[in-house]
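Board notes (copied after class):
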Amino acid sequence: MSTDLVLVNPKVIGETSYPALSLLCLAAYARQEGHRVVIIDAQAEMLTDEDVSARIAKCDPILCGITFMTHQVGIVRELVATLRKDHPHVKYVAGGIHISILPQEAKALGFDFCVVGEGEVTLAQLLSALKGHSSTDNIEGLWADNASQFKSRKVIGNLDDLPLPAWDLVPVDKYTVGQPDLRYTQESGVCLTIAASRGCPYNCAFCSSHGVYGYSHRTRSPAHVVDEMEMLYERYGVNKFFLVDESILAKGQRAEEFAEEILKRGLKVKFASSARVNDPAVNIRTLTKLREAGMVRVDFGVESGSQMILNDIRKGITIAQIEHAHETAHKAGMQITSLMMSGHLEESWEDALDSLELIARLQTDYPEFGAMTPYPGTEAYTKALREGWIRDGDWSKYYISNVYRVMRSRHFQYQEIFALSLLCWDAARLIVHWKQRKASSWRDFFSILGTDASGLRPIGRYWVAKYMQTGEKDYLRKLRFQQLRRIRRIRLLDNPRDAELVIGLRKHPWRIVTRSNRIRRIRLSLPVLLERMENVIAIPVKRAFYACLLAWVSPREREDRVSKS
């Protein structure tokens, strides 16, 4: 039997696979309106473009919808080209934050239409028009040929009017979502994400979330969210969730009703969610109730330890509020993630050290640092473009973990932005480990100075440890980019042409002599190879040496530590 609508979640970089919640909601609504829908999750099932095309051939749809983010533009362009060649009779519609902000790109990517903003009603009306061979000109929220014909659509007022997401159309057992109680543990089919609200009332300079849902924050009722949790538990055995909500603590009454709803139904679940540190419900009463209901972790958007930077990015919070929120959540028995950002447009080296000092004061379990990425539609992008700090317009390079940075800042060069994020992340993890370990012996110090392939060398970790021993910021000021173990590789990958020559050599080293540009490949690879040899040979010795220095504390430093504690 033919299908009316096929929704595609395209490939992304890496192997982690999160549910495409927007497609689940679109599919559920279209099905409620009487349309036959299929979802193809190319990332979850690791499908090639040819695989996706073969699936579509079996469905024979009228319309194919594809959602994507900024860094997937190149991937989607190739996918649509393949699908158009194989299925020229199908109409193609784009959706998502990127295309909602830049709908004029839809035609160039090969789409017939794009949905701007919230898509349920718009997509269903488009499908009905195509099935009935009627005009699509007056459909609100639908971008076709030009801006003059476009009419925006109001957002859906009551989210409870929408059906539960169509989880039955996707491979639930293939999703790998970080678990609420084990943040860095990802197992297929164990944890799922649930959209508990839409939109955000704030306007941070780096965020583009308003591109789809505007600046309002609309929430599903506690009962509606728990209905979805209960369904996923009973149907698929999933009892761990991450609630996608700009702030679960925005309203205390809603948060407490949510906790009571879970307890009333006797659901044995574990979940985590995001929150703002200045939310009204950041109090011991509300957080304790949520903890009793199964909330084991809260993720606070901190961004920076510098009040000047927080003001510049219009975060709308203070350092005092950050510290209070962490202390309160810790008292309630929550694990805490502190989400930080490196490379703010006006951030200096001293501001970055302020962030590390803040981590040292916070009750946090997971300090996370990501590199500032200037997404289109944000104030950060507009300002960086105006200042001449953006060097590349290839959207495929606009993702947080990319070594090649498209933007510099006032105080840091392009590759230094990524290096700064690695340096801060490793230093912050060492700080947290130090506080948890309470090291005293040489063996303790030796263990703490251990590092992974992307972190600081022992000398860098030594300066962080000395800061933790003494509380003197001057030790943090001794941190340098040269102390990163991957600094040569970071600098190499900053040039895309050079990166293309060496990518893959680690797995296939023979390519260095079997491919063209052999001399160039060898010259580029040699410094990185020497760096890796140094890491393997020299670092254990240096680690032991610095552990000895830490274990030997002068009498004055020992007295200072006792007095501060």
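Comment from the instructor: The two ends are 72 Å apart (CA to CA). The chain has two domains: 5-149, 176-436.
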